TrEMBL record:
A Pfam family recorded for this sequence: SMC_N
Function, in words: Required for chromosome condensation and partitioning.
Name under which the protein is recorded: Chromosome partition protein Smc
GO-annotated biological processes: chromosome condensation; chromosome segregation; DNA replication; sister chromatid cohesion
SUPFAM superfamilies: P-loop containing nucleoside triphosphate hydrolases, Smc hinge domain, Tropomyosin
Organism: Sedimentisphaera cyanobacteriorum
Keyword RNA-binding: no
GO molecular function list: ATP binding; ATP hydrolysis activity; DNA binding
Boundaries of every SMC hinge domain copy: 521-629
Length: 1182
């Protein structure tokens, strides 16, 4: 592999695209301080993936982008390209690119394709090429190599040994091993949790299997019972339908007779209505005639008044015609006057227009003369401006010469002061070096103290993490328990909301009450909802209530029966208890506790509670109850916690009854669950509060650790700054010694430059006098032309004034003429308007005569109509009297018919009542059948109508009492099972499969862990062998090269295995003994000796495993001429195996280079490359 080319564009001071091409030889990069030489080395580190801003001598990564100068804008992107040749030994080429934009976006490319930094690092791994490898050696690294800790020196040896890739693979394997172990812990936790769940689910599954067995037997017995009940109800339905058909036939005969009478009644009623309608019509006509008589009388009066008004209006119109004739005569006189004035104004306007044309011609000639003179004036002004520009230019050159001379004098004074300043800086730098050494020792002491504090803090954090983990697991367990309780509560709540266990008739009643509560205020609610108990006694309370558990508590039984008996007749039985009607009997004193003590309700129902429950004595079980029965009094009973009832006279009742039990138990269980959920939530809150407290403590410790880490980082930074400062002091001394002769040479050449500036000033002053003479004659001619222009302009202004005045007069005449025309038009319009008014008034007079004649005729017609209307009124009164007589006869016939109809309706009502009763019986039977079918569908999920056809059996063969007893026992068994998780059977199978899967996962992870451990061990063995072999070779090479560089002496390196016996972790100790001196610690060597020792070690490593190329950045800065010569000799020895690119100021080092790149700053802030080849006379500027 060989480095062919580096291309920089926008990187630091290289604003323009700059290319450095390298050959298989030694290449030098030279230039003055600050020109950007080391930026080339920074570019190589940057493109290879350097992430440290300090290493790139920047405060932030964006600083590597060209930031602009006084004459150049800043770049938007920095790009560096490295091109390698013969990568695989067959001539192939590799191109590495890195780009950075100002918005922070960064890109790596390999052969033009986007890639990761990891890909680039892997490409150069174990080749010696890299940011921290030995292919880039800087002046600061020389000192750091010797001052670094023993373990820090290992990195460069590992790169040479080629175990970097092994270490990377080992690190990856260790990371995978840690993840595998973490996953094993997680899987083990899950496995343990699954086993715990499986143990719990197995119990639930056994319970579920018993439930399934009982449920299947219960469903079978229910099916037999429901089929028999269905058959009985179907028979009753058929019998009722037959009886209903006979009653319907009898009712039909009565109905036909009833229809005939109703038809006759309807006919008579219609006739009577027609007569009454006719009478009403006649009465209406009489009223209408009376109204017309009144209207006609009023109209006749109105017409007489109208006739008087028309005569008056005719007189007024004659007077108005006379007034309009006078107004017309006056307007015609005004029109004549306006026409005469208009003729005079038109004659004067034509005369003024002719005069305006003559003045306009004179004005045009004057404007041409003024324009010509102004053009000559502008030409003179242009010439004058040219002269002014030349004068200004010469004056500027004179001023520049003065400024240049003054600046040279200032520069001379500055250079004199600079020499004195450099000498003072030299003394100050030596004092700074001593101070920095003292600060370095203090920083090292502070670092040791901070490291101890950091370790103690980490131990506390680890213990706190364990405590937090335990509390988190406890909280998770509590939340799981809470979730199970909430699931059970939701299930019971759904049953409560849907009124599960409440009969259909009761449900319908409650629905109606909910829709209209104001109509049923006497209903208090269900007994099972009003009375409550704890879970332990809830079964006993339900047993004590018996069938009343589904009854309603009401304030008024009579209203209840009146409103709800029809519903009970149709839908099923309803029960009610009246609150407060009968006082409770006081229970006799007993040492046994009464059931009423365990029942809760509002104060309103306390009397009812005593009445219902105080007669029951509570016993633990049936055996205890049987022992207590001998002491029972009349009306007392014993109820057990399981619901059995023992009464006086040997009466015993088992089971929980049929159908509607469990409502109070459910409600009690919900209350208990609610309390438990609150307790668990309180426990969770306390645990989470503890976790929050631990997290706060953890945060405080983490912040302390972070603060200590920051202090350690700051201390390391201070140590690095102190070391860098000492290096900078040495560099400053060298720079002063180099820059001083140059300053003296510049000082000698300044006087000659001052004389040249003064000579240029004298020549420019002579040119200035000549131009000023030419400017004077030009000013005289310009003044004469301006006077002529003013005279012509004045004449032109006079003509303009005359033209303007004349135009104003013409405009005034025009305005006057238009006004006269407008006035004339208005007068003519008014005359026409008067004529129209005269015509209109005459037309009104003619119309008024016609209206007077018409109104007179209308008065005569109205008097004739009044006579006719009075005659019509008398005829209508006679006709109405005859109609009323006929209507009286029809009413008598209708009364007889209605009497017969009433008798038939009574007979028909008796038949309908019988028919209605049979209908109700039939409907009730059908409802019971539907309820039975629905109940079978709900409970058994089957249609018993189809089962009835499929299953035939003899009812006489079945003992239904035994079946009912077995059904009760099965219900009791199912109830005792409590809440059953039927899904537990499937959950058990699923958990067993998951347990097997997790077991396999644990085995796989264990196997993977073993394989990774074996891989790490194998990498360690191979790495130890490679490192040991490389170390021995470097050791021999170090001894040999040290003797060459020092001309004798001794040096050695050995592994420091006192603290760390593992060869892969132990440090490296360096021993050096220059010729003629005793063995010294590295820190006691002089600056030159340290540099030569470090160079010897680096080249020993380089000889063991050469890298394709090597950048040496001013590593020879601290060497004197003799040591520099030895350094050059070593470099020349290695050039056959590697390319060397050397950044240097030393002339001896430049002399061994086959090719030199010069870096200059011809423009401030912008670096430029110059190439020189020693075997060619051509020099090209790039």
């Amino acid at each position: 592999m060989r480095l062919n080319k580096i291309i920089l564009h926008g990187f630091k001071s290289f604003a323009d695209k700059t290319e450095f091409s390298f050959e298989d030889s030694i290449t030098g990069i030279v230039g003055p301080n600050g020109c950007g030489k080391s930026n080339v080395v920074d570019a190589v580190k940057w493109v290879l993936g350097e992430q440290s801003k300090k290493s790139l001598r920047s405060s932030q990564m964006a600083d590597v982008i060209f930031s602009g100068s006084s004459k150049r804008k800043a770049s938007g992107m920095a790009e560096v390209v490295m091109i390698f040749g013969d990568v695989d030994g067959e001539g192939s080429e590799l191109q590495i690119t890195r780009r950075l934009y100002r918005d922070g976006d960064s890109t790596y490319l390999m052969n033009g394709k986007t890639c990761r930094l990891k890909d680039i690092r892997e490409q150069f791994m174990d080749t010696g090429v890299g940011v921290s490898a030995y292919s880039i050696i800087e002046q600061g690294q020389i000192g750091q190599l010797l001052s670094a800790s023993k373990k820090e020196r290992r990195m460069i040896f590992e790169e040479a040994a080629g175990i970097s890739k092994f270490k990377a693979h080992k690190k990856e394997a260790q990371r995978k091993l840690e993840k595998t172990e973490e996953r094993m812990l997680r899987v083990a936790d899950i496995y343990n949790e699954v086993q715990k769940q499986l143990r719990s689910v197995k119990l639930q599954a056994g319970k579920a299997r018993n439930y399934v067995e009982y449920k299947e037997r219960l469903d079978k017995l229910r099916m037999q019972y429901y089929l028999a009940e269905y058959k009985r109800l179907e028979g009753r339905k058929a019998q009722t339908e037959t009886e209903l058909a006979g009653v319907k036939e009898s009712c039909a005969e009565v109905f036909r007779e009833l229809s005939r009478l109703e038809a006759l009644q309807s006919e008579l009623q219609n006739s009577l209505r027609e007569k009454e309608h006719t009478i009403s019509s006649k009465d209406g006509e009489i009223i209408a005639v009376k109204g017309r008589i009144e209207q006609t009388s009023q109209r006749a009066d109105f017409l007489m008044n109208r006739l008087d008004e028309l005569s008056k209006r005719k007189t007024d119109a004659s007077k108005k015609i006379s007034e309009l004739d006078n107004q017309k005569t006056m307007l015609e006189a005004e029109v004549y006057r306006c026409e005469n004035e208009l003729s005079d104004v038109a004659s004067q306007a034509q005369s003024k227009q002719d005069q305006l044309s003559e003045l306009q011609e004179l004005l045009n000639e004057a404007e041409l003369d003024v324009s010509s003179i102004n053009s000559r004036i502008e030409d003179q002004k242009t010439n004058a401006l040219d002269a002014v520009r030349k004068t200004t230019q010469i004056k500027n050159e004179i001023q520049n010469s003065q400024n240049r001379a003054e600046n040279l004098r200032i520069e001379k004074e500055r250079l004199s002061k600079s020499v004195s300043s450099q000498q003072a800086q030299l003394e100050s730098s030596q004092q700074d070096k001593k101070q920095k050494q003292k600060e370095l020792e203090e920083v090292k002491s502070r670092l040791e103290e901070l490291s101890g504090r950091l370790e103690a803090n980490k131990d506390m954090i680890a213990r706190l993490n364990e405590e937090i983990s335990e509390k988190v697991n406890h909280a998770a367990s509590e939340k799981q328990e809470k979730s199970a309780l909430e699931r059970e509560y939701r299930l019971l709540n759904e049953l409560e909301k849907s009124n599960e266990g409440v009969g259909k008739s009761v449900s319908r009643l409650l629905d109606e009450v909910e829709k209209s509560p104001e109509n049923y205020s006497y209903i208090c609610g269900l007994a099972s909802k009003i009375f409550e108990s704890d879970v332990k006694h809830s079964v006993a309370v339900e047993a004590g209530l018996g069938e009343m558990v589904n009854w309603l508590i009401v304030e008024d039984c009579e209203s209840f029966v009146k409103d709800w008996k029809p519903l009970a007749d149709k839908s099923g039985r309803l029960g009610a208890i009246e609150n407060g009607q009968v006082p409770a009997e006081s229970a006799s004193q007993s040492r046994h506790r009464r059931l009423s003590e365990f029942v809760r309700c509002s104060e309103k129902f306390s009397g009812l509670k005593e009445r219902l429950f105080s007669s029951f004595i509570v016993a633990e079980d049936i055996d205890n109850a049987l022992q207590l029965r001998s002491g029972l009094k009349e009306g007392e009973q014993i109820v057990t916690l399981s619901g059995e009832i023992v009464g006086a006279g040997g009466r015993v009742k088992f089971g929980r009854g049929s159908g509607n039990l469990g409502i109070i138990s459910r409600k009690s269980r919900m209350n208990e669950l609610n309390t438990k959920i609150e307790d668990v939530q309180k426990s969770i809150s306390e645990i989470e509060a503890g976790i929050d407290e631990n997290n706060s403590r953890h945060k405080e410790l983490s912040e302390t650790a972070s603060q200590i880490g920051s202090e350690i980082e700051q201390a390391n930074s201070d140590r690095y700054k102190a070391q860098s400062s000492m290096q900078l002091v040495d560099q400053a001394i060298e720079n002063i010694q180099r820059d001083l002769p140059e300053s003296q040479r510049e000082l000698e050449g300044i006087d000659e430059k001052i004389r040249e500036a003064e000579k240029a000033k004298e020549e420019n002053e002579a040119s200035l006098k000549e131009i000023e003479q030419q400017t004077s004659s030009s000013d005289s001619l310009l003044e004469e032309l301006r006077n002529q222009s003013e005279e012509k302009q004045q004449y032109k202004n006079e003509l303009n004034s005359q033209v303007t005045n004349l135009r104003i007069n013409i405009g005034q005449d025009t305005v006057k003429r238009n006004a006269l025309k407008q006035e004339l038009s208005g007068l003519k319009g008014r005359i026409e308007s008067v004529k129209l008014n005269i015509k209109s008034v005459r037309s009104d007079i003619e119309g008024g005569d016609e209206q007077i004649e018409s109104t007179t005729q209308s008065v005569l017609n109205a008097e004739s109509d009044l006579s006719e209307l009075y005659s019509r009124k008398e005829n209508l009164a006679d006709e109405a009297s005859e109609l009323r007589k006929n209507a009286s006869e029809l009413f008598e016939k209708l009364s007889e018919t209605e009497k017969d109809l009433k008798e038939k309706k009574e007979s028909n009502a008796e038949g309908e009542n019988r028919l209605h009763k049979l209908d109700l019986d039939l409907s009730e039977t059908k409802i019971k059948i539907e309820d039975l079918i629905q109940k079978a569908a709900d409970e058994l999920e089957t249609d018993i109508t189809t089962q009835q056809q499929d299953q035939q059996f003899e009812e006489s063969e079945v003992n239904w009492d035994e079946i009912k007893q077995e059904i009760s026992e099965l219900k009791a068994k199912i109830f005792r099972l409590g809440n059953v998780n039927v899904d537990a059977i499937d959950q058990q199978d699923e958990l067993e499969k998951r347990e097997a899967f997790l077991s396999e996962q644990i085995d796989d992870l264990t196997e993977s862990k073993n394989k990774l451990s074996e891989l790490i061990n194998r990498i360690n063995v191979e790495s130890r062998e490679k490192f040991q072999d490389t170390f021995e070779k470097v050791r021999e090479n170090f001894k040999e090269i040290f003797r060459k560089l020092f001309g004798g002496g001794k040096a050695d390196i050995h592994l420091d295995d006192e603290d760390e016996p593992d060869i892969l972790e132990c440090g490296i100790e360096i021993i050096a003994q220059p010729p003629g001196k005793g063995a010294k610690a590295i820190s006691l060597l002089s600056g030159g000796e340290k540099t030569m020792t470090a160079i010897a070690l680096l080249f020993a490593i380089f000889k063991t495993k050469p890298s394709p190329f090597c950048f040496l950045d001013e590593v020879d800065a601290a060497l004197d001429e003799a040591n520099n010569e030895r350094f050059n000799m070593i470099v020349q020895e290695f050039q056959k195996d590697s390319q060397f690119i050397i950044v240097t100021h030393a002339k001896r080092t430049m002399s061994i280079a086959d090719k030199l790149f010069g870096v200059t700053m011809q423009q401030q802030g912008v670096s430029k490359r110059i190439t020189v080849k020693f075997d060619s006379e051509d020099t090209d500027a790039a």
